[in-house]
Structure formats: structure tokens, C-alpha cells
Amino acid sequence: MRQSSFKETAARICFMAAAALSIVAVALICIFLFANGIPALAEIGLPEFLLGQTWKPTADEFGIFPMIIGSIYVTVGAIIIGVPAGIFTAIYLSRFASKGIARILRPGIELLAGIPSVVYGFFALMVVVPLIRTTLPGNGFSLLAAALILGIMILPTIITVSKSALDAVPKNYYEGALALGATHERAVFRIMVPAAFSGIMAAVVLGIGRALGETMAVVMVAGNQPVIPESLLSGVRTLTANIVLEMGYAADLHKGALIATGVVLFVLIMLISLLFAAIKKRGEKS
Amino acid sequence: MNYQLLCSFARKALTLLFALCATGAALVSLGCAQTNLDTEPISVYSREDGSGTRSAFASLFGLETTINDKTVDTITPTAVVTNSTAVMMTSVASDPAAIGYISYGSLNDSVKALAIDGVVPSIETIKDRSYKVYRTFALVTDAPFEETSSTHNQETSILKNDFLRFVSSEQGQAIIESEGFVSALSDPALYERAAASQRPHGKLVIAGSSSVTGIMEKLSEAYEELNPDASIEVQQSDSTTGISMVQSGTCDIGMTSRDLTSSEEASGMVATPLAYDGIAVIVNPDFPLDDLSSTEVARIFSGEIKTFGELPSWQQTSKQNDTTGA
Fold this sequence. Notes:
The complex is a heterodimer of chains A (286) and B (326). Chain A is globular. In chain A, strands 1-2 form a two-stranded antiparallel ribbon. Chain A is mostly helical and 286 residues long. Chain A is built from 13 helices and 2 strands; from the N terminus they run H-H-E-E-H-H-H-H-H-H-H-H-H-H-H. Chain A has a single domain (51-285), classed as MetI-like fold (Orthogonal Bundle). By secondary structure, chain B is an alpha/beta fold. Chain B folds into 2 domains: 43-135 and 279-320, Periplasmic binding protein-like II (D-Maltodextrin-Binding Protein, domain 2, 3-Layer(aba) Sandwich), CATH 3.40.190; 137-276, 3-Layer(aba) Sandwich (D-Maltodextrin-Binding Protein, domain 2).
């Protein structure tokens, strides 16, 4: 009896330590980011940092406005490409695909999720960029290339999350619709999809988070010019790219400015997480 | 019934896909045929701010200006920024209108190195200083050469100084040259190792710039062969990390491919030159010119010249071609 209670306590501590690990990691990252980023932010000045149009670290000019806009543009582009394709794939997989097709599609999508981002980047550098260069004006390193590759990269997230939302809709909704005389298509698009709406929105928000945070693939194809892009075909630098590009050589205030870029990114991602939680909550209520 | 519908749908989808592919291929071939370098904008490829290659390139081509007492490069902000030599070379190799720059030691056949002011980059031309575009690799320590630093014990100090002697000796510099870099010392002394009983022992940690890591590994292997009791660990990171590791005492020698910043110098860091590395201006292998003047390169990278047709040497060549053609 005593031994079993000892085992019980030991196991409890073990599990608790495992659970605490992730919290500690998040807390440490927070502390690191804010402790290193805030002093730099204070030195540069928040409005100059967030709204400044020139990024010239060697001249002590740290304006990340072009990068914030760049991140938003690239993410919106990825959403335009990835979201319709992802949602339609999820609807197809959930309600239309035969078992045989689903057997081929599902592992394919899982594989897409498992490919390392540097491989996506390399593929984009060798295939997408030359394709854009030869078909359209410009040198191919562009907002379009980054959005295209990110659109593909967020597909697995969007497909799996929206598919599970669709699968979770009670079966009697569908059957009820059929009983009232709706066709299969009508039942799916008018009943099932609206019922799964909050789940699908959650998928989109997760996709946004993924696109915003992606670094490696974007750095390789976006061109990385620290200027606000004029068109789909001009180069763009995202917040993540800004950090990874210059971390290697940065010193002093430059390093602080890069960490502060990380703080901005962290806050953005946190807002998206809050949005995700809010959508989920609303979905549970309804 | 349902199955048939699916089949016909799949057939339609496939036909559409093929049509798309065909259009894409047609567009690609059309695009290739239309490439006209005269009027097409130049794709300028650069490295990230803070990169040793970038700052060396900018200062060597006079692409610098002073803002608020700080030296700032004037490389056009619309240049594509790559953060590795590999991506730079892949990009330039596939873009007919590209111009970029890399370390001479990394040059291979996938791109073409331009002659600058008529001088082709090579070990010989870098060595005799006729090729002007090169940078310095240096070792960073927390005390001047041969002086014992306060942060180290006796054993490590002896080892460190002996290793630095080896690196700047005739043997050490020969290894540097065999790796494609150029010796930074004009008249190196011969390294004589100590008598067997007095040979340095212990462990030395060297960290820093990835551009210098390759030669440093070769040097430490050769040194360990001569002094079997010594072990040297080379860690690859970047110039800044290497220097800050020396500052914090977590490594003994730092490797840098850029100059020390004033705050680093103020903290007592000392840089000893190790080797010179040429910087090659690279273009696509199909690029028609072999030679640009340094002013032309500077004007391209500052964004002043936007198409190759505006280059004086381009106009000259096409004029020559016209006369030989007629």
C-alpha cells in the first residue's frame, strides 16, 4: 500500500515535470525576448521602429514597417492561394471522395506536412522562381513566389483541421437535409459546411499562423529587399526573414533590433492565438 | 451512375491540367526566346547587412557614405538579398540578367567571374595586389599576440601563443595558400616546435566565422600532428558569435571575416590578420561580357545603372560586333 502510494507520487511528479517543461520553455523565451528586445525598442523608439520606412542597420536606422507590410502581404497571398484549395480538398475528402481516392490523397497530404521547409524553399528556388522569371517580368524573386510556396505549405494544416471540423458535424444534420429533399451537394454545402464554419475558420487562423512564422522557404525565394513591395512581382522581406538574414553578423543595437523584431512577431502570433481561441469558444457555444 | 459521373469529371480535370501544362510550357519557351539583356533590368544580388562579404564588397567598390558618423553602404535597397553563398550562386547561375558577388574561394564553374578593370581574379593576381577586391580574415584574441591574458591559465596561454606562432609561420601560411586563400604575411618565420618535453598540451577552443572555419580546421590538424598532446576544437558559427565568445571567455581564439566594431575594440579585443580572400563579381555563364570596370560595377550596385545597355563597355562591345558583322 505504502509502496503504491510512493509510485503514485513519483509518477505524478514525473508527469507534472513533463507538463511544466513546455510552460518553462515558453516563459524562458518570453523573458529572453522581452529582456533583450525592450531595451533596444526603448533606444530606437517604438514609433520609429514600427513605422520607420528605412532599415539600414549600419546607419542605426531600424524601421521595420516594410517588413510588417511584407509579412502581411505574403500571408494574405498564401491565404488566397491556400485557403480555397485547402477547404475544397477537405470537403472533398470528408464528403465526396471514394475510399480508394481517399487512400491515395490522405497519405499524400500527410507527406506534404512532413516535408522540411528547407526542401520547399529549395524546390521554389529551383522551379518556381525560374518559372516566374521566364513567364513574367522581373527576376522571379518575388512576393508571388513566396505566396505560392507558402500557399502550398499551409495546405496540410488547413485540410486536416477543416476536415476534422467537417467530420465532427453530427450525422443527423446531413440525414435531415436529405430527408427534406436536398441533394447530396446541397446538403454538404448548405448544411455541413456552415455547421463546421467555426472549425474551418480555426483552420484558416492556424494557416495564417503557419504562414506568418515560416522562415526558411521564404528567405530563399522572396528576394528579401527591405522595401515595401510595389507589385506582386517585386521582392519582399518578412519579419522572420529579417531576423534570420542578419542574426549571424549582428552586434550591439542591431542585434537588439532583431530581437525586437522577434518581439513584434511574437505579439502578432499571440494575437492570432487569441483569435483562434475566441473562434473556438464561439464554435463551442453555438 | 455516380461512378460514371466521377469518371467524366476526372477526365475533364485531366484534360484541363494538360492544357494548363502546355500553356505553361509554351509561355516558358516564349519567355526564353524573348530574353533581351540590352533592355531587361539587371537583377542585382547582394548579401545581407552585416555580412563580411557585403561590407568588404561595398568598401572595395567605394559604395560607402557616412551618415551620423557611421559608415553605411549604398548598395541599392532593391537588390535581392541572399544570406548564403549557395543561394547566391544558384540564383546567378539560373538568371541571365544577374550580377552578384562571392568569396573567391567558393567560386566554381556554375557562374562566371568577371575581370575587374581588366584583371581576372586568381591566386596570383590577389597575391600581387593587381586584383584589388579582397578582404582580410583575422583571428581575434583578448590580448595582443604573445601576451599572456588574464582570463587564461598558464597551460592554455602557452598553447594559444604557440598555435598563433604556427599559424603565422611559413608552414601555416603554406596551408592557407593550398586552400585557395592568400597569405596575409609578407615574410613569415619558420615554425620550430619545442623540445619533446616542453611541447604545449591542453585544449584550445576556436570559434567564429564560417568562412574561416575551413582553413582553421586544416591548420589545427597540422598543428595537432606536430604537437600530439594539444587538442584544438574548431566551432563554426559567425564572426559576431566568435568575438562575443572570446569576450565571455568561452573560447580562446575567435575567427572573423569582418573588422572589429568600435565597442569590440574598446573591450580589449585584438585582431591579427591571417589571410586574404578575394571577392569575385559573378554573372551568369552565358553573359556576353568578361570584363567590367570597377566604376561600372559600383554604378550597377548603387542602382544608378538599371540595364546592361547603359554600360559603356556594353555599348562598346555591341558597336564592335556591329562593325565586324558589317
